[in-house]
Amino acid sequence: MLRHSVRFLVYLTAIFLASCKTTKPVSQPAPPVTEKTTQDTIVSEEPQTPVVVPKTEKTEENQQEKTVKKIAPPLDIYEFRAAWVATVANINWPSKPGLSTSEQQREALKLLDFLQENNFNAVIFQVRPQTDALYDSELEPWSYFLTGKQGKAPEPYYDPLKFWIEAAHNRGLELHVWLNPYRAHHTTGGEISESSIIKRKPELAVKLENGMWWLDPAKQGTQDHSAAVVMDLVKRYDLDGVHFDDYFYPYDSYNNGKDFPDDDSWNTYKNNRGELSRADWRRHNVNHFIRRVYDEIKTEKPFVKFGLSPFGIWRPGYPQSITGYDQYEKLYADAKLWLNEGWIDYFTPQLYWKINQEGQSFPELLGWWERENNRNRHLWPGINVGLGGDEKNIDETINQIMITRGMLPESKGTVHWSIGPLVKHDSLSTALKQGPYKKKTLVPSSPWLDDEAPEIPQVQTTINNERIQINWTHPDRDDVFRWVIYFKYEGGNWDYKILNGDLSSYSLQYIVGEKKKKMEQIGLTAVDRTGNQSEFKAIILK
């Protein structure tokens, strides 16, 4: 382990010095007691002074600038930590179609408990694997992967997505719904029912030679229907994000290397005097849809993040040493444009290759995407944790997380493909929790969505024997998503606890250790839905 760590540190140093500034193709794996107290200590509330963030304001009288000092929290505790939960082909959940409601819920809670216990803060849950629904929808039928028959509701009835959202939020996890916008039927998806869009709107769907069906991205009906599905979810559910992966126009292997069968829509475009080449026209169709979805989400609920997880290589030769699949030319996905234009809130290229892999090096690709991120959106790469749980593969996973932290310090984060290997390999999950995921973190803020921080909570503390009780109120507590308690013991460093937004009290050890060290300072911040954290004030315990 030490040998690998030293090699990693040398490698990482070289990166920084050089860059100052499923069933898929082989480059990607197959496709988330209250007790009475007596106040025996007087407390005083004073601001913590060492860390300040200057802010410039102008007075109405003379328009002269003045500096207002905003006291920042004593620790930077932001990092996005998510895992994909795939439902297509029952990859991750449920374990097979047709389980009872109680069995489905038990399996779901086991996965969510795992994420909570291992200090993740988000789950990316696939709710639409093939123009179907793992939730109660009037637009599309119940999923075969849920009940074993497309169109059949769970028995006894429940809404799986509502269940997942509530359970995730209760565990301090964001929930992002993951949709495939164009895949109409998967080869493992059972019988196509009369309620499928393939039967209801056959003019929108085409069949591929491997048995899959695909919606034609050029058809207005496709765009309207898929956008309506997204917005139905955004309007009716308490989501934190909407997520698309790499399936736009299908991989050419799905059609035995033949071109996508869209002659009908292409000829209509040409007959209407369209001037784009066929490839540019296909890319335009996808670009238009991505921009539309982003704008519609922001109009309805600006705090709901829109994330995209494209294939990890934009084009071979970008950067120069990169070789491999050309998503720009094959999937008609101009993922670089979406990042350049800021049509997303977070960008998760699927960088499923190793650090030292020639032609597809993880840090080389991450560095290239970072240079394209001129709108400063979140860049949280997807990594492959399916390599196994031995020492070599554990080192690879941890080193990729550390490289990401070093290269993207302003908004750290990683998305793990998928939750399955994390649960399967105890050695991998243990190494993560004992290493980079030792403490819980907040999801980084999204200042382009909202940069107004909540007000400071009003805090009262009461000490009883060796514990300190913290109670608080807040004028806008319905807008608070998380609380963070910061605390510091005699001779020690700052530490913290992240709590759910529905709490209004918490108890901590006031005296710790054999030397009976007392807590010296404590403070509480409020965090809103987009990650903004309130100003920090330390309570000095005298």
Automatic annotation (TrEMBL):
Keyword Glycoprotein part of the UniProt annotation: no
Pfam families, per database record: GHL10 (PF02638)
Domain of life: Bacteria
Keywords: Signal
InterPro entries hit by this protein: Divisome_Glycosyl_Hydrolase, GH, GHL10
Boundaries of every Glycosyl hydrolase-like domain copy: 79-384
Keyword Transport: no
Protein name: Family 10 glycosylhydrolase
Native organism taxonomy: Bacteria, Pseudomonadati, Bacteroidota, Flavobacteriia, Flavobacteriales
